[in-house]
């Protein structure tokens, strides 16, 4: 996984986490079901950004890491 991919995953994961917490607090105009969905999505994005491994990428054969970084 390339650095740009990690950065995007971190930012989107953090935003999803904030949206999940805002939904739980009742300050976001989202249905209650959105909180756990956003929370799980946020955790998945943040973990894959931290570890640099995405299982879906492995299955699909996607590689976002530049060739010179290997």
Automatic annotation (TrEMBL):
Residues 1-67 form the Inner membrane protein YgaP-like transmembrane domain. Keywords: Membrane, Transmembrane, Transmembrane helix. The keyword Transmembrane applies. The chain crosses the membrane at residues 37-60. It comes from the Archaea. This is Inner membrane protein YgaP-like transmembrane domain-containing protein. The lineage of its organism: Archaea, Methanobacteriati, Methanobacteriota, Stenosarchaea group, Halobacteria.
């Amino acid at each position: 996984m390339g650095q740009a991919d990690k950065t995007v995953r971190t930012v989107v994961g953090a935003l999803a986490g904030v949206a999940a917490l805002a939904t739980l607090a009742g300050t976001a105009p989202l249905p209650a079901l959105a909180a756990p969905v956003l929370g799980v999505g946020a955790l998945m994005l943040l973990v894959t950004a931290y570890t640099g491994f995405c299982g879906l990428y492995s299955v699909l054969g996607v590689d976002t890491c530049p060739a010179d970084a290997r």
